[in-house]
DNA sequence: CTTCCCCTGAAC
DNA sequence: GTTCAGGGGAAG
């Protein structure tokens, strides 16, 4: 479900509600979501820990404990984290509940059960989650046109696919890659090696602007977040191309098209995001 | 490179 | 009934 802006939203809502809390008890309803180190050890290690902070890296969340231990969480497609009063109804597909000292609960809900939890002890290096392979954060000042062109400029793959490569830029998924390419005016199926300096500049700028916009627009209170069950995000109605095939482009009124790239759907405006080959024919 | 897999549910 | 879904890893 969530990409970087949504995961950041989850972090901003959840962190203030768990900092300083002690975990009194842990219930796991579906062990599949525990990737490491196994259900029973996970429960044993987590019980009694006191939360110090929460952080986000790409689409990963980490809960840091006073002991130095931490829990890394990836929500994948449909994972949701909620802080709920103990008497709040248990949603279907609730796989994990941690009872907190304030009398509330941290709950994990995941319809498709693709999400994963890892418990890492203080002295354990993270060799399990994949976080160590992440590239730059979109808002990192080192993420520039030169960085993108240097890392991707000779690749044959399409720009749409490469924007999903978490080892280059961390946190972009299928929604935001569509939105970023629309904002850049780049045809999603364009091969990286066909893009020029100006294209990379617009893409670098759009990555920052669209991701920052996504985070800002998602801003909400903890009450609103709970009411939306941690799965309703504010910016969804304002996306400009994702999920809008057949509708008219807000900029030029052309009909937004949907194509398949690397096995995933991609929505784009054929007029605002013209293929370079067509464009070069037009300016002859 | 493409295809499949992990899962459930909504839309068609 | 079939297809698709905001992720990611493994297998062919």
Descriptive overview:
Its cofactor is Zn(2+). It comes from Anaerovorax odorimutans. It is a single chain. With about 280 residues, the chain is α+β, with helices and mostly antiparallel strands. The chain folds into two domains: about 5-135, N-terminal domain of MutM-like DNA repair proteins (Alpha-Beta Barrel), CATH 3.20.190; about 145-280, Helicase, Ruva Protein, domain 3, CATH 1.10.8. Helices cover about 30% and strands about 20% of the residues. It has helices spanning about 5-20, 40-45, 145-150, 160-165, 175-185, 195-215, 220-225, 275-280; strands at about 25-30, 35, 50-55, 60-65, 70-75, 80-85, 95-100, 105-110, 115-120, 255-260, 265-270. The strands form three sheets. Strands 2-9-5-4-3 form a five-stranded mixed β-sheet, with helices on one face. Strand 7 and strand 8 form a beta hairpin. Helix 5 packs across helix 6. The termini are far apart. The mean pLDDT is about 95. The structure holds a DNA duplex (12 and 12 nucleotides).
Strand content: 15-25%
Q: Provide a count of the helices.
A: 8
Number of β-strand runs: 11
CATH class of the largest domain: Mainly Alpha
EC number: 3.2.2.23, 4.2.99.18
Cofactor: Zn(2+)
GO molecular function, one term: class I DNA-(apurinic or apyrimidinic site) endonuclease activity
Keywords: DNA damage, DNA repair, DNA-binding, Glycosidase, Hydrolase, Lyase, Metal-binding, Multifunctional enzyme, Zinc, Zinc-finger
